[in-house]
Amino acid sequence: MKPRKNQAKKHYENNLTILFDDVHTGTSYLTGVGERADGRDINFMINYGKGLVYACITKNTANRLNLSRMDRDISHKNTLNTSTVSIDYKTTTTGISAFERADTIKNIHTSRNPGDFKRPGHIFPLIGQVEDLLTKPDIVAAALELASNFIDPIHEPTSFISEILDHNGEVSSIHDVKKFAVRHSLEIIKVSDVVHNYLQKKEWLEVIEVTDMRLFNHTLKVLKVHNHLYPSSFTVYLHTNTNDYSKRTAFHTECISGDVLGVNHECDCHKHLKEYMYDLINGQITGVVYRQKYNESSIPLHYENTIEQQLIDLVTNKMKARPITKDSMTV
Ligand SMILES: [Zn+2]
Q1: Distance between CA atoms of residues 224 and 81, nearest Å
Q2: What residue spans of 84-138 are helical by DSSP H?
Q3: What distance in angstroms lies between residue 264's CA and the mean position of ligand 1's atoms?
Q4: How far is the CA of 273 from the centre of ligand 1 (A)?
Q5: CA distance 108 to 62
Q6: pTM for this one?
Q7: Centroid of ligand 1 to alpha carbon of 166 (angstroms)
Q8: I want to staple 272 with a disulfide (CB 3.0 to 4.6 A). Which of 62, 258, 265, 306 is the partner?
Q9: Residues 249-282: pLDDT tens digits?
């Protein structure tokens, strides 16, 4: 099956890739798509990992197979915090060979019956969900997201991972991992890049209200736009008499002293809402995006960039492609 998104390159499509957790732990993992698990890949993992192979599964899969999270000391910042009891597929003998471990992993996504797995076994399921990438991106969420690009969307993704250790049995440094990747023609994907790509896949903005506004004999469209990524809203003012969307859209964040109190010397703003509205009426700009003040410091920079890009897209492309009516505005 072809990947829906050309995010990971050929090696991952066929076999394994390296996922580097640059967000939290600095650990690198070998990873592959669960339903394509292959004995040779598992053998490669065991040789370069520490012998443990984890299956990454979603909460739905865990519920379906009656695999519940084991209680552990959550102060330990390792992957085992989300682990369930270990499993082997029912047809395996010892369950420990690379090929039997591949069988166990492959059968996770198709099995419906908790009785299909013996426990304890040799595969360690870790529970996570792709949505965790928004709030607490970890290796399990990233591995599941990568795998989801290669499977039919109606299936729950499963993935398998193993930490990469060096000759001394220590966690490999990224320097060593890079050399390892070249030696074995493997690609390295960073968790932060997985988060970035996940953000791009979704449209986070929804137009929830469209009204007209008269200002100095001009009619403006006023759009209330909700940001689902970080619950907050924007107001977008658009000139109705223009089809020229090549002009600039101004982005302005609410300034209490300048916009509300009218005191301009207290801030660093280039302009304030009132002046932007004059620019809009005079045709110097296409629209004004006015963002109410909220706690911006809690928003990672790349999330802001995503929203900004989608706002520009909303204002410049979607507006001209469709008539502005309330029904047509869900993005
Ligand atoms: Zn200001």
Answers
A1: 42
A2: 98-108, 132-135
A3: 6
A4: 9
A5: 9
A6: 0.73
A7: 54
A8: 258
A9: 788 888 988 988 888 777 889 899 999 999 999 8
Q: Residue 288 Cα, ligand 1 centroid: separation in angstroms?
A: 15
CA of 289 to the centre of ligand 1 (A): 15
Distance from the alpha carbon of residue 100 to the mean position of ligand 1, in angstroms: 65
Single-letter amino acid, residue 184: H
- Residue 271's CB: how many other CB atoms inside 10 A? 16
pLDDT of residue 197: 87
Q: State which amino acid sits at residue 255.
A: C
The amino acid present at 182, given as its one-letter code, is V
Q: Where are the alpha helices (DSSP H) in 15-155?
A: 39-48, 59-64, 98-108, 132-135, 139-148
Percentage of residues of the chain with pLDDT beyond 70: 82
Interval between CA 318 and ligand 1 midpoint (Å): 29
The domain limits of the chain are 10-201, 205-321
- At residue 208, the 3 state secondary structure works out as strand
Contact (CB, 8 A) for 8 and 187: yes
Distance between Cα 234 and ligand 1 center (Å): 17
Average confidence (pLDDT) over 9-15: 51
Nearest Cα to Cα of residue 50 among 143, 161, 160, 164: 164
Report CA(258)–ligand 1 centroid distance (Å): 4
CATH top-level class of 10-201: alpha beta
Residue 89's SS3 state is: strand
- CA dihedral sign, ordered 186, 191, 196, 201: positive
Q: How far is the CA of 275 from the centre of ligand 1 (A)?
A: 11
Q: Which homologous superfamily is 205-321 in?
A: GTP cyclohydrolase II (3.40.50.10990)
pLDDT tens digits along 142-151: 999 999 988 8
Helix (H, G, I), strand (E, B) or coil at 162: strand
> For residue 127, which of 87, 98, 99, 100 has the smallest C-alpha distance?
87
CA distance 187 to 30: 10
Buried b (16+ CB within 10 A) or exposed e, 276-297: bbebbbeeebbbbbbbeeeeee
Q: What distance in angstroms lies between residue 285's CA and the mean position of ligand 1's atoms?
A: 19
